[in-house]
Design a protein that fits this description.
alpha+beta; eight-stranded mixed sheet; five-stranded mixed sheet; 28 strands
């Protein structure tokens, strides 16, 4: 057994035998700026009660130097993941001295050296089980404790943790910072950050409560922070959640830090929320990008209650925090900030993630069966987040806003600082709503898959609503008509749908939307007349949420092979140039690009690609100067130009400063454009070197690595392949750059020879590398071939492979099978 992969059963047994009280963690980070130093001293002192005389602690690091149990040194029994403890009594004090390893994969304590100013930055990222890379601990969410962190770091650095410092001792070139004890929290949401971060301070006040706010970023990105906007959204969120949950923010301060080479969008560490720097633009940014950042800020803030204050017992109930936070992020954005169209973007983009995940053979119920940590790691997916949030939106429509939030208030009051399961939440919701939640839970939380809805007309003229995979829905049907060049809703019908066939009274209409207002979670098809209306008049639909639902329906039908890819692309070319909602436009542009690369039959692909580049370029030229649409089309042009070099002269002109009026060619867009030229053979290493000299930053070096690996040369692609698999010094971002370069331009002629080697390597890499790095390799380098035989052969020969690895391969196989199936339908 891999002892790093903890199981549900053994952790449940451990928490039944052990009660943790206090944990003190001392970290010596003074050597972090020395690049040759790979590890850091870490000392953990744990106070806990035990009903057994032997147990284990979790730790993954360079080594364990000392284990002391109740004042007596023990022989060190350590297998690389677990430290054995023996001689335990009712009340215990255990001290572990060890050496942790600085991370380059974003797991544990990540270290980043900024090439701009040669400064060093550290931050932790633990979910679901990487705090054991920094401290000896009980690595499971149901063993909460008070944590006290003590950090030694170079003088002049910001040193941060979940709580505020109680005192700081200054030495010669070093400082020791001791933080106040936390309230009881799980190990995976403890946090430390250290480095010469820039900071902006603020405050939130409500009655007699005051919360200190801090926003942090490394110095070389301070000019791009938009701190006032971030602080404004933060204050709006604290206002909203304080009222909604009737439970004061419990964690003291509220710091938010943007960090490099981050694996996630953000992480809800109480008092110290970490965000990817991708939420900071190094030049131009659309309002949709700022809306996405606001949504994430509010998502993480919702976790201060859903997840941090009340935590799931085990990862089966991950939805108890992620589904709720996803719902609350959109809801709070819509009602508390200027981003009132958050549900529009959710309908078109976030739910698309859920729909895709729910059609995979590896889909699972929202309340999942998570047997171990590897399964937990892969369960941070579209089901747990987006489907769960969509189902909660339907639940709110079912029980009403007030009952839902009152149930949440009772849930927090009853379970504060504790751990819960599904039943704990349903009990509270049933109490306030007066409804038995068991049927709803069984239909939506404990089953997998999704329904598809469409209408049929019987011979006698009756309209029938047909549902596959029947579930109970509360939905609205919108009836729209064309009026003076606009498409307006004339009428709306609300009904409950339960069985496979439901007779409905459906008046004549130009456009019928079966899930108007997006109340339920379902794929809704357009009837023939509605599709014809959409082809002619999609951009004339006034309501952005209705347009979102139409765009979503078209995309789902294309993915399922029911709408011809060429027909979908024609609708996009006709109506995307007039799409005024930038969140919708961004998603449509990405879907169109994906359709060309994956769903169009090979014989038609070059023609469709050329038509797409022409559309994108002409729309870019015609876009309003300085508009979000102009920037969105410019980015789409850079993406498309990596697959078709018909406009390479215009790409070069943009790089040379000949841009349409108002268009900001920032460093990231410059790299996109240059990489497109490199991929198509119209730029070389000298161009890449010149661009890197112009942008010699961390992001610039990563982009240069990708550009170099994108050259259309078989030897270059072999080098990228070898680097991805074999260079253990690559950071997570640099690995992505090598993978992106290897796959650049969809050049199967350059990379198809590696297919067999891929299947020979993945089993070994899964056992040898961290799950984060192994996952990137398994997913990122999966062969985009025209045959399922190689992957089927691997699955047949590796029935005993780790379940998490097989899940990834099965999912990639399903994506490929869908593409092949849809392409055949086009042909």
């Amino acid at each position: 057994m891999d002892t790093a992969n903890l199981t549900r059963e053994e952790t449940a047994a451990r928490s039944a035998a052990v009660t943790v009280h206090r944990i003190r963690v001392e970290l010596d980070l003074t050597g972090a700026p020395e690049r040759a130093r790979t590890g850091f001293p870490t000392v953990t002192t744990l106070e806990f009660s035990s009903t057994v005389d032997a147990i284990w602690l979790d730790f993954i690091g360079e080594g364990v130097q000392r284990v002391c149990v109740n004042g007596v040194d023990q022989e060190i029994v350590y297998d690389g993941a677990r430290i054995a403890l023996s001689g335990l009594v009712d009340s215990n004090v255990v001290r572990v001295e060890a050496i942790g390893a600085y991370s380059r994969s974003g797991e544990g304590l990540h270290r980043f050296h900024d090439p701009v100013d040669d400064e060093t930055y550290l931050y932790t990222q633990y979910e679901p089980a990487d705090s054991r890379r920094v401290m000896a601990c009980f690595e499971q969410p149901d063993m909460k404790a008070e944590y006290t962190f003590v950090v030694d770091a170079p003088s002049g650095w910001e040193v941060l943790s979940n709580q505020s410092p109680t005192h700081t001792d200054l030495g010669v070139g070093v400082q020791r910072v001791e933080f106040a004890p936390t309230l009881p929290i799980s190990s995976y949401i403890t946090a430390v950050a250290a480095g010469p971060y820039s900071r902006v301070d603020g405050e939130w006040r409500r009655d007699d409560q005051s919360v200190a706010l801090g926003v942090f970023v490394r110095r070389s990105l301070a000019a791009h922070l938009e701190a006032e906007e971030i602080l404004e959204v933060t204050r709006q969120g604290l206002d909203f959640f304080t009222d909604a949950f009737a439970y004061p923010y419990p964690w003291g301060k509220y710091d938010q830090i943007f960090v490099p080479e981050y694996n996630l969008g953000a992480m809800e560490n109480p008092g110290l929320v970490t965000f990817t720097e991708s939420y900071l633009s190094r030049g131009a940014a659309t309002d949709a990008q700022r809306a996405a950042r606001a949504n994430t800020i509010l998502h993480e803030m919702a976790h201060m209650w859903f997840g941090d204050l009340v935590t799931m017992t085990w990862w089966d109930d991950l939805w108890l925090k992620e589904s709720f936070a996803d719902y609350m992020g959109a809801h709070a954005s819509a009602v508390a900030t200027r981003y009132h169209d958050a549900w529009v973007t959710f309908a078109a983009s976030r739910k698309a993630w859920a729909y895709q995940q729910d059609q995979l053979p590896t889909t699972h119920p929202i309340v999942a069966d998570i047997t171990d940590l590897e399964a937990a790691k892969l369960n941070f997916d579209g089901i747990t987040y987006a489907k769960g949030a969509a189902v909660l939106k339907q639940l709110v429509a079912f029980v009403g806003d007030e009952a839902f939030f009152e149930g949440a208030r009772l849930y927090f009051a009853a379970n504060a600082f504790g751990n819960t399961t599904l039943d704990d939440f349903l009990v509270q919701l049933s109490a306030v709503s007066g409804r038995d939640m068991s049927d709803w839970s069984a239909a939506w939380l404990q089953t997998s898959g999704m329904s598809t809805l469409w209408t049929e007309t019987e011979a006698d003229g009756r309209s029938i609503l047909v549902q596959t995979d029947p579930r109970p829905h509360r939905l609205r049907i919108g009836l729209y008509e064309r009026v003076d060049g606009r498409v307006l809703r004339r009428e709306q019908r609300e009904l409950d749908v339960v069985g496979e066939r439901t007779e409905i009274d459906l008046p004549d209409a130009d456009l019928v939307l079966l899930n108007d207002d997006d109340l339920t979670y379902v794929k809704a098809r357009l009837d023939a007349r509605s599709l014809a209306t959409v082809e002619e008049s999609l951009s004339a639909i006034d309501d952005p949420l209705a347009r979102a639902l139409v765009w979503s329906s078209l995309w789902n039908a294309t993915r399922d092979g029911e709408l011809a890819a060429a027909r979908y692309l024609e609708i996009v070319r006709t109506h995307a140039p007039a799409e005024s909602n930038i969140g919708l436009l961004t998603g449509v542009l990405a879907n169109a690009s994906y359709t060309i690369r994956h769903f169009v039959a090979e014989a038609s692909r070059d023609q469709e690609q050329r038509r797409w580049v022409e559309t994108v370029w002409s729309t870019l030229e015609a876009a309003d100067a300085g508009s979000d649409a102009q920037l969105s089309w410019a980015r789409a042009f850079a993406t498309a130009s990596a697959f078709d070099d018909g406009h390479q002269e215009q790409v070069r002109a943009l790089l040379d400063g000949q841009a349409p009026e108002g268009l900001v060619i920032d460093p990231d867009l410059r790299w996109q454009l240059l990489t497109a030229l490199v991929t198509t053979g119209h730029a070389d290493l000298a161009d890449v070197a010149a661009e890197q000299q112009r942008d010699d930053t961390g992001d610039g070096r990563t982009a240069a690595r990708r550009a170099r690996s994108s050259r259309p040369d078989a030897t270059v692609r072999r080098e990228a392949w070898d680097s991805a698999w074999n260079d253990l010094a690559l950071s997570n971002d640099h690995l992505d750059a090598e993978i992106g370069g290897f796959r650049a331009g969809g050049r199967r002629d350059l990379v198809s020879g590696f297919d067999d080697e891929y299947f020979a390597r993945i089993g070994q890499v899964w056992g040898a590398r961290s799950i984060e790095i192994a996952r990137r390799l398994v997913v990122g380098l999966f062969p985009a071939s025209d045959s399922l035989e190689p992957v089927d052969a691997w699955l047949a020969a590796n029935a005993e492979a780790p379940a998490a690895l097989r899940r990834l391969v099965i999912e990639q196989r399903d994506h490929l099978a869908r593409e092949l199936r849809v392409r055949v339908a086009q042909a």
